[in-house]
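User: Structure tokens for both sequences below?

Assistant:
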Amino acid sequence: MTNDLDTALLRSFVGVVRSGSINRAAILQGKTQPALSQQIQRLEQQLGQTLLLRSPKGIRLSPEGEALLPYAERILSLTDQLSLKPVLQGEQQRSIGLVEDFVSGHLNRVLADFACAHPRLRLRVDVADKQTLFAAFERKELDVLVSMPLAAAATPDQALSLPLNWFAAPGFNLQVASIPLVIFSQPCTWRDRILETLNRANQPWHIVFESSSLAALQAAAEAGLGVTALLADTPPQHSQLITELPPLPDVTIAVYRQQGDTDPINQQLAGLFLRELQRS
């Protein structure tokens, strides 16, 4: 006897976790609250584990729920892609532009999973700064672009706000007169906002390391050179979240397609990038 998981139950579970409450998830999914609660209970019964801990203050994941969540998201991502109608005839290519700041596990997973679902599709990925990528996009060399917005650029399919967080090596000493910064090189919108935030808080700072490479910043922060500000899903591998410094403003990330583009493959790619960014 098999014990296959119902993807509808997994989708309900992920929806509740991402929305933060059963009531809000029910509204977003077009279900009643009792019906959604029953689906969560069915999933818990099927697994023989409590996934959500309920209290007057709301819900939170149990340890078993935390373990299930990444697998549930992966299953749903693959299911969504396999359900897409095949539209390819012969080998085709799509070109994607990514700002390096967003080349994280989530976005890599989009590319890998999509390639598996569409083996005849050849993907070309360009990773560069946003000025270079937007120039290529204007020359119509890119089908899909994921980047911070650029003034006077095309209107994106959708733009999202994501939080920046401070990170440093474990045990990093913040009791210093001036905060040592590991930061992106110019030109960088994040850099300006980070420095403005510190200046408004009258927090002294000095730059000890700068680079245009995300990997280089992660390595420098891991080595204990200083504090860095990155997205939540791109922290240095061995680091800790820093909460003692002034809170940083959100950054805007947008997904672009060429104006008037109705190509279903490009629509699917853009949709997958948006879905992963919303989970960040």
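Moving on to the next sequence.
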Amino acid sequence: MYCMKESDVNSFFAIVCGYNPEITIGIMLDDILKTHLKEKNTKNLSYVEKVDTIIRIMNQRNELAKPLPDDEFGDFAEFMKDEEPSTKHAKQHLYICIHNIDGPGLRSKSTQHLLSVLSSNRYIHLICSVDNQLSNLLWEPSIEDKFGFMRFNITNFCTYFAESEYYSLQDLYNESSDGKKSSEEKSLGPVEIVANILKSANKKHRQIYMIICNKFIENEKYNESEEGSSQPKPSGSTHQEIKSSMGVYSTDDALLRDGLSYLENQIKVIKKKQNTFIPTLKRNQCEKLLVILNNS
């Protein structure tokens, strides 16, 4: 999370990277209180108390202000200009922009409820995007009413460069959870990271990935055997092997190529090795991941 701009004493704009799995409602509330509202003694407050504090401060700062005719919700266009601060608007407004409000750290019902309470305040404005087409399942009618969303379809097919940078490839190659870390730091290991990514992928992509994982585990075990030591097999799966495993009529070459490209180039959970595809995880990690995916 980071602050993009503070135009003047009447306007605050915070940006939240929801696709970062480490971002939580607690981090977001602390940043708003400390960075924007300059409140320091909030460490021991609960999440509900922090939300109440933000709303109370915004209401107190605005209760004596007299808005100009078009200032009911803040002059957003004026706020975005790179000009000298304007003092003609007395009201203060907080704009919160969340990229992927359905991100892994923000999906819980309690988090969505707290965000809806914030956005229901007349001086706090929530601007957000969603990544998953089923993201509307996050919200019950009562919570959605509090959000009061105005929806705009801006579907795009951009590569997930910014999003994927938060899924550390170093964690995917190493057993980071076996290091000397606290229980909180170990809560999101490489297996959980890939599991969260694949849960948001479609069924065909998950099927392709699981075939690659199973073949990888099978070949690794064979290569450790006495027979495999003399005649080792490649660890990965060829394009034809994946297609055969999916069934002759289950997919065509174009769909399979698109799926492999998505897994390799966009979410980066497989890689090419000697014209075969292998997971970026180690064998024991793949075994754990398959258990999670089969039970989800």
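User: Anything stand out in the second?

Assistant: The longest helix spans residues 203-224.
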